[in-house]
Amino acid sequence: MSMQDNSVFEERLEEEILKLKKCQEEKQLKSCSLCEHYIGCETRRAYVQAVYDSMSKGETGGFEF
């Protein structure tokens, strides 16, 4: 996998982090776990998926640390 491919995952993760932080700021929360929409939240789900994709670089299975 090339560095360019890796940067796609990192860019997506940064985008999802910004969306998550914006949502928390709008709701005046410091953590998603304090939100009434915690379970089933699409913003949080997209963030978690971006974290997973960033760690696995799009591969299924193990992670590169």
Notes on the structure:
The chain is mainly alpha-helical and 65 residues long. It has one domain. 60% of the residues lie in helices and 0% in strands. The protein has two helices and no strands. It has helices spanning 3-26, 42-56. Helix 1 packs antiparallel against helix 2. The chain is elongated. The mean pLDDT is 86.
Mean pLDDT metric: 86
Helix content: 55-70%
Q: Give me the Rg, rounded.
A: 13 Å
The major sheet is characterized as: none
What's the number of helices?
Answer: 2
SSE order: HH
Stretches where pLDDT is under 50 for at least 5 consecutive residues are none
Strand portion = under 5%
How many distinct folded domains? 1
* Global morphology: elongated
Count of β-strands: 0
Distance between the termini: 15 Å
Structural class: mainly alpha
Key traits:
single chain; 65 residues; mainly alpha; 2 helices; 0% strand
Walk me through the topology.
Blueprint: H1 3-26, H2 42-56
Helix pairs in contact: 1-2
Short characterization:
The chain is mainly alpha-helical. The protein has helices at residues 3-26, 42-56. It has one domain (3-52).
